[in-house]
Design brief:
There is one protein chain. By secondary structure, this protein is α/β, with parallel strands linked by helices. The protein is built from 13 helices and eleven strands. It has helices at residues 12-15, 43-59, 71-79, 91-97, 152-162, 180-188, 202-208, 224-233, 272-284, 286-289, 314-322, 328-352, 360-377, and strands spanning 32-37, 62-67, 85-88, 112-117, 124-128, 144-148, 173-177, 194-198, 238-242, 254-258, 263-267. Strands 2-1-3-11-4 form a five-stranded mixed beta sheet, with helices on both faces. α6 (180-188) runs parallel beside α7 and α9 (272-284) packs parallel to α11 (314-322).
Length: 386
């Protein structure tokens, strides 16, 4: 169900009868699917390309991957109907919640739902230049930290991660960048000291091979106070023992933060059959692409986190049920999250009817109050507050 979200309108090409090849398992796909992702070189982009190669080989379907520098740019084509899906990061959560860069009259809460997301040996963690030495997060006061304009996933993640050491953005020197890729280049070029990255991304590997190097400050699960501070600002993170990534020694395990990445998702308004076909293809052909790119093995059906903070699309649920991995607990969580999206959508519609101020700051403040009130009344956690 779309629940009235300002979701993507199905493009005319995809609205036509699916013309792609039909495989066993009765998977039907269109001749072309357009998917947005991070910039070239990012692990999410590389995983999308690996999936695309599988789709072309097995079904004759061309997966057109559009790179974009921030979350707003990645979601724009989906909402406009020019793309059907995205390989995103945790910006999907902020868009769902209608906060940060999405707390604007042009956006608001978005009805986004999952297909598959990857959980593997990597981490989504705070990265620093290795030439800083063995510096714990609490001692990074005054260091330069990257800040990507228009990317709540990166920026809020950074704030959450430095909170592990008791730091806020007032304790570091922010350096603005127009894209995630530019920020990672900034680490190599000695423009910043602190960034947020996947341990297995191409940009992290580039930093490892640069004169500065790359390191991942430990975030042990035993530091419960530190993790409480992290999850207050970024509830999508959880502790993880990571064993793979740029800058790791042979056999090294580092306790860092993680969330599923990348997150293959679509608007709730995308047809169930399309999402089912794409998700099913990724599940039944897993063995053909699981070794293509580091981290893509995390898309395995049995690794799906059914207790996370964004619901699965009905088409994906159907595919996961057929794979024998969907659980009653997962269904209960999914129902709760879909109800949450409806609460947010209704609250947004009601707020717009109040003729809120055009001033961006006043508009955001009013919406955040309306959002808090609606979620509290519905018995849902606020989950985020400015």
């Amino acid at each position: 169900m779309a629940y009235g979200f300002r979701g993507a309108v199905l493009s005319a090409a995809v609205a036509l009868a699916y013309v792609g090849a039909t495989a066993a398992q009765d998977i039907k796909l269109p001749a072309t699917i357009t998917l947005t992702s991070y910039e070239t070189g990012a692990n999410a982009f590389n995983q999308a390309v690996a999936v695309g190669q599988m789709l072309k080989s097995k079904y004759g379907t061309d997966l057109r991957v559009l790179p974009a520098g921030n979350d707003v740019a990645r979601l724009g084509p989906l909402r406009a109907g020019r793309a059907q899906a995205s390989s995103m990061g945790v910006g999907v959560y902020y868009a769902q919640e209608g906060v940060l860069e999405f707390a604007t009259k042009e956006w608001g809460p978005q009805g986004l739902q999952l297909m598959l997301s990857a959980t593997t040996c990597s981490g989504q963690a705070l990265a620093v230049a290795k030439d800083l030495g063995n510096t714990p997060i609490k001692d990074m006061k005054g260091k330069r930290m990257g800040w990507v304009v228009g990317s709540p996933a990166v920026n809020q993640s950074l704030l959450g991660l430095i909170a592990f050491g008791g730091l806020t953005k007032n304790d570091v020197k922010l350096v603005d960048y127009s894209s995630y890729g530019a920020m990672m280049k900034g680490l190599v070029n000695n423009e910043v000291d602190i960034v947020f990255a996947s341990t297995i991304s191409g940009q992290a590997k580039e930093a490892e091979n640069s004169p500065r190097g790359i390191a991942w400050p430990p975030m042990p699960a035993s530091d419960t106070a530190g993790w409480e501070r992290v999850q207050k600002l970024a509830p999508y993170f959880y502790p993880h023992k990571s064993t793979c990534g740029a800058g790791y020694g042979k056999g090294e395990t580092i306790e860092v933060a993680v969330y599923p990445y990348p997150i293959f998702m679509a608007y709730a308004s995308q047809p169930t059959d399309l999402v089912y076909g794409l998700t099913k293809a990724m599940i039944v052909n897993y063995d053909s692409y699981k070794d293509a790119v580091v981290g893509v093995d995390g898309l395995e059906a049995k690794r799906q986190n059914q207790k996370w903070i964004v619901p699965y699309h009905p088409g994906a649920v159907r595919a996961l049920k057929e794979a024998g991995v969907w659980t009653d607990e997962g269904q209960k969580n999914n129902d709760t999250l879909i109800a949450r999206q409806k609460v947010l959508a209704d609250a947004w519609a009601a707020y717009l009817k109040t003729n809120p101020a055009d001033d961006k700051d006043a508009f955001r403040k009013g919406w955040m109050e309306a959002r808090r009130t609606a979620l509290t009344k519905a018995g849902q956690p606020v989950g985020f507050d400015e």
